């Protein structure tokens, strides 16, 4: 395997802005999840950057990934994608044969890129697969409590609603927990996350009730199950998800309702948080202030607008929490319905 | 080593360890074949009659078989067929004796052991057979050194004649196997000197800890392989395995093998079996030595570095780390985190009788860490301000349970069930070589019982202040020797048998003679998987439920 100096590669890498590409991809396609956007951005990067050796490619990939992770406030979701892509590249390169280290690098490159695209297409289809798996969980006459703006959950509920036999073959109710934090911040359309799904479900004839987060404990008695989405599924089978999921998990456990998580298998992250405060994210949810601090902070904000090298903080409305595996009944993924402990098995399968 | 002549000495040598415990503990290890005649006399009478046979035993055993037999009891020479039959009978008798010994809980290690063979109803026929077998196997016999003249007090020996109380704790009865070997006497001649030495080191906890034992075993086996020559008429892959199994058997009589040792041995045997029989011996040996080196490097040395690095990531500024006993991998982790400049405190919980945490405490304190040391009784106090618990492992079982030094489960439970606090994560650092496909539901079925005498403190710290009230002295009849030894005055009065044996600072010193008293010295316990949050291995961090998957993977590779 030939190796050339990496310095030339980095010099060329500058013109293509991976962060901008990633953000642009996420904005342009509302159906795109973070890991997939990251993979797509990396594939685009590889098509843009002419690299001639394997080590050059890997180095470029590693550098751009690190850069991307540093500039995005919540890199958990996207790191699932970048890690997966990197892993995939390495295993492809290690495989013996035409596409292995002995083969022609040009051929390897084109193969990688085409396969990367294939991977993206498959990942997009995985939501359909999940819906097919999860449909069985929603039965006639049940009430589902859900939260957040997970597209996987939305597609699952919609799939259940329009079963083959016309509109709403399965009659079920939905209690939708709407976040109160995002209400005062103008989102894409100035309404809380999930309103779109609520409208779509109501259009399909599914009765939906919306409640604030403070009413979850009150409303859980009327629900039969909880279904939530996830930003990342971590190694021990727990999930990193929208702030408020953890408390729903605790309440569901306390009241004895099953708690299901819907997540694509590309959201599995090699991460092992030990608790809420062990996430690789800078978020200041709990902040103690006095009147003095507030005055001091506002004065400071006027003087220093932005510090380039500071780690990016996560805005409060995007903050996440960690739901430990013992609160989760099952994970509905595109590789089947898994128990939390099976997640690590799946991850090991991917990584070794 | 396959020549048929060998079989006789081997069997007679194997015979020796069984007899050894019954002889004086101070006996020279070179005695491989004590010839015991007239043992029937011993069976009839109490200790004094023991003197006679010992004298007889002193007779040079190197004499011709017929002579030896004649000297023993005027026996006529036996035909080979008869010899064989007698050897068989002798073996059966030995088994029975061993069993009795075990039941009696006779500790050969105890310095003041009673007279040999006391209380053992041996079939009267056996002594002659002993002599005969010994004579036949004279190849291995040497003149035994003079026996220790005086056995313990005659009175004590008489007392021993009474049916001994069972000193093994009933629930753990199945764990009382053979007594641990005390000397290298009677080890087969195939056993390599390096292995002989290692066996004693293992037994005395000089080499202690799952990884250390595994590494030491592999290194000793490397020397075995190096000095091995394939006998004529066989091939290395076929014969070396049996040669190794002699070493393994010897090691396991010194101390039961650890899971890591077992896994390493299995890997080595697999490597031996994989060698092409047509490969020249020197090349095959080089391959095996390389295999051993790379095994140690990959599975232990580098694995430890990887684990230490990734576990150190979990330590944050301001943490209070609680750890139990002295795990080398936890030490590496804490030192790695310290080197990264993290500010944290360490609280070491230790336990008797091994006090493994003392070395850890010293090593960490020397490195500049803030260390608190306490014994396991202080657990509730130590766990109060803990933020994380780091534990080492002896093994991880397939149901995710942690099998580690006894007391680990208590620490893990205290951390998890801490009242009124946030849950403290329990992190286990464990190389995958310690994973096993066995399942442990409790600490009873699979465990190791160490010598109960370890629980009897050998040296009570010298008392400097707070000397006992002189008034209290007069009450119990304590002899002045003991009072000087700093013995607390309110300790129970030892029975007269103990006082004959010089100063014994512990009230438990003669527990074997005390009725209704059993000592239990367990080595390990099983921590439920629910109490373990994370297992850090060289392959990454796993929940305990992933242990079987990783084990399957790492053994299939």
UniProtKB/TrEMBL annotation, chain A:
GO terms for molecular function: guanyl-nucleotide exchange factor activity; translation initiation factor activity. SUPFAM superfamilies: NagB/RpiA/CoA transferase-like (SSF100950). Gene3D superfamilies: Translation initiation factor eif-2b, domain 2, Translation initiation factor eIF-2B, N-terminal domain. It is found in: Cytoplasm, Cytosol. Its main location: cytoplasm. One of its GO terms (cellular component) is cytosol. Keywords: Cytoplasm, Initiation factor, Protein biosynthesis. InterPro entries: eIF2B_alpha/beta/delta, elF-2B_alpha_N, IF-2B-related, IF_2B-like_C, NagB/RpiA_transferase-like. Component of the translation initiation factor 2B (eIF2B) complex which is a heterodecamer of two sets of five different subunits: alpha, beta, gamma, delta and epsilon. Subunits alpha, beta and delta comprise a regulatory subcomplex and subunits epsilon and gamma comprise a catalytic subcomplex. Within the complex, the hexameric regulatory complex resides at the center, with the two heterodimeric catalytic subcomplexes bound on opposite sides. Belongs to the eIF-2B alpha/beta/delta subunits family. This is Translation initiation factor eIF2B subunit alpha. It comes from Penicillium malachiteum.
TrEMBL record, chain B:
GO terms for molecular function: translation initiation factor activity. Its main location: cytoplasm. Residues 49-58, 89-104 have a biased composition (Basic and acidic residues). It holds the Pfam family IF-2B. Residues 59-72 have a biased composition (Low complexity). It is found in: Cytoplasm, Cytosol. GO terms for cellular component: cytosol. It comes from the Eukaryota. Residues 105-118 have a biased composition (Gly residues). The keyword Ribonucleoprotein does not apply. Residues 8-33 have a biased composition (Polar residues). Keywords: Cytoplasm, Initiation factor, Protein biosynthesis. InterPro entries: IF-2B-related, IF_2B-like_C, NagB/RpiA_transferase-like. Residues 1-165, 461-510 are annotated as: Disordered. Belongs to the eIF-2B alpha/beta/delta subunits family. Component of the translation initiation factor 2B (eIF2B) complex which is a heterodecamer of two sets of five different subunits: alpha, beta, gamma, delta and epsilon. Subunits alpha, beta and delta comprise a regulatory subcomplex and subunits epsilon and gamma comprise a catalytic subcomplex. Within the complex, the hexameric regulatory complex resides at the center, with the two heterodimeric catalytic subcomplexes bound on opposite sides. This is Translation initiation factor eIF2B subunit delta.
């Amino acid at each position: 395997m030939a190796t050339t100096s990496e310095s030339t590669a980095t010099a060329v890498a500058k013109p293509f802005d991976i962060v901008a590409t990633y953000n642009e991809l996420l904005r342009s396609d509302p159906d795109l999840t973070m890991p997939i956007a990251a993979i797509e951005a990396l594939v685009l990067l590889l098509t843009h950057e002419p690299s001639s050796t394997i080590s050059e490619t890997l180095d470029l990939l590693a550098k751009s990934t690190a850069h991307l992770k540093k500039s995005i406030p919540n890199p958990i979701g996207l790191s699932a994608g970048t890690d997966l892509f990197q892993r995939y590249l390495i295993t492809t390169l290690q495989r013996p044969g035409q596409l292995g280290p002995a083969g022609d690098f040009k051929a390897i490159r084109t193969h990688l890129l085409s396969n990367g695209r294939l991977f993206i297409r498959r990942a997009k289809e995985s939501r359909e697969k999940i819906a097919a798996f999860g449909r069985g969980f929603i039965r006639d006459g049940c009430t589902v409590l859900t939260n957040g703006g997970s597209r996987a959950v939305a597609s699952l509920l919609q799939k259940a609603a329009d079963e083959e036999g016309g509109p709403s073959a399965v009659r079920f109710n939905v209690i939708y927990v709407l976040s109160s934090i995002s209400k005062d911040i103008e989102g894409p359309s100035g309404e809380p996350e999930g309103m779109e799904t609520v409208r779509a479900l109501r259009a399909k004839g599914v009765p939906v009730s919306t409640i604030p987060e403070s009413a979850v404990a009150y409303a859980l008695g009327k629900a039969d199950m909880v279904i939530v989405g996830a930003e990342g599924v971590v190694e021990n089978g727990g999930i990193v998800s929208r702030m408020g999921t953890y408390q729903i998990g605790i309440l569901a456990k306390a009241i004895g309702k099953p708690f299901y998580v819907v997540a694509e298998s590309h959201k599995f992250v090699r991460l092992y948080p030990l608790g809420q405060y062990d996430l690789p994210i800078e978020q200041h949810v709990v902040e103690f202030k006095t009147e003095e601090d507030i005055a001091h902070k506002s004065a400071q904000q006027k003087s220093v607008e932005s510090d380039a090298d500071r780690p990016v903080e996560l805005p409060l409305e995007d903050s996440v929490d960690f739901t430990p595996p013992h609160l989760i009944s099952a994970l509905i993924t595109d590789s089947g319905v898994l128990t939390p402990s099976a997640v690590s098995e799946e991850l090991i399968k991917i990584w070794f | 080593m396959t020549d048929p002549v060998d079989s006789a000495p081997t069997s007679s040598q194997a015979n020796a360890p069984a007899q050894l415990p019954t002889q004086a503990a101070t006996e020279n290890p070179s005695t491989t074949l004590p010839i015991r005649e007239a043992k029937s006399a011993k069976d009839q009478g109490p200790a004094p009659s023991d003197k006679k046979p010992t004298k007889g035993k002193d007779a040079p055993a190197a004499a011709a078989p017929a002579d030896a037999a004649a000297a023993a009891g005027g026996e006529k020479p036996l035909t080979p067929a008869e010899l064989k039959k007698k050897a068989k009978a002798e073996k059966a008798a030995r088994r029975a004796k061993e069993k009795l010994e075990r039941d009696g809980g006779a500790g050969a290690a105890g310095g003041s052991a009673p007279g040999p063979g006391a209380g053992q109803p041996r079939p009267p026929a056996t002594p002659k057979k002993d002599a005969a077998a010994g004579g036949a196997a004279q190849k291995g016999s040497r003149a035994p050194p003079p026996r220790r003249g005086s056995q313990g007090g005659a009175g004590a020996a008489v007392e021993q004649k009474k049916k001994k109380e069972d000193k093994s704790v009933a629930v753990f009865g199945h764990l009382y196997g053979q007594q641990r070997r005390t000397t290298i006497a009677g080890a087969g001649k195939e056993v390599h000197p390096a292995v002989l030495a290692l066996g004693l080191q293992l037994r005395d906890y000089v080499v202690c800890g799952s990884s250390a034992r595994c590494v030491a075993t592999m290194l000793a086996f490397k020397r075995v392989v190096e000095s091995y020559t394939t006998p004529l008429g066989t091939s290395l892959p076929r014969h070396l395995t049996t040669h190794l199994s002699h070493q393994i058997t010897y090691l396991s009589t010194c101390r039961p093998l650890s899971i890591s040792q077992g896994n390493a041995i299995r890997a080595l045997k697999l490597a031996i079996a994989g060698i092409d029989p047509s490969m020249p011996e020197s090349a095959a040996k080089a391959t095996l030595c390389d295999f051993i080196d790379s095994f140690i490097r990959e599975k232990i040395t580098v694995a430890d570095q990887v684990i230490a690095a990734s576990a150190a990531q979990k330590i944050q500024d301001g943490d209070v780390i609680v750890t139990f006993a002295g795990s080398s991998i936890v030490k590496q982790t804490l030192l790695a985190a310290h080197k990264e400049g993290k500010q944290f405190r360490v609280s070491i919980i230790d336990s008797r009788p091994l006090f493994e945490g003392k070395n850890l405490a010293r090593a960490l304190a020397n490195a500049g860490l803030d260390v608190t040391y306490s014994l396991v009784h202080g657990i509730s106090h130590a766990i109060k301000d803990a933020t994380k618990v780091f534990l080492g492992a002896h093994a991880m079982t397939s149901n995710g349970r942690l099998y580690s030094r006894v007391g680990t489960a208590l620490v893990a439970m205290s951390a998890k069930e801490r009242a009124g606090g946030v849950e403290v994560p329990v992190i286990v650092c464990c190389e995958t070589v310690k994973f096993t496909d066995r399942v442990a539901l409790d600490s009873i079925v699979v465990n190791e019982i160490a010598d109960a005498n370890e629980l009897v403190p050998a040296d009570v710290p010298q008392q400097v202040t707070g000397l006992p009230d002189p008034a209290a002295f007069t009450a119990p009849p304590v002899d002045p020797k003991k009072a000087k030894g700093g013995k607390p005055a309110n300790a129970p009065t030892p029975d007269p048998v103990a006082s004959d044996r010089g100063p014994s600072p512990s009230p438990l010193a003669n527990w074997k003679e005390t009725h209704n008293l059993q000592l239990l010295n367990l080595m390990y316990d099983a921590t439920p998987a629910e109490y373990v949050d994370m297992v850090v291995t060289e392959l990454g961090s796993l929940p305990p439920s992933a242990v079987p998957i990783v084990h399957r993977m790492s053994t299939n590779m």
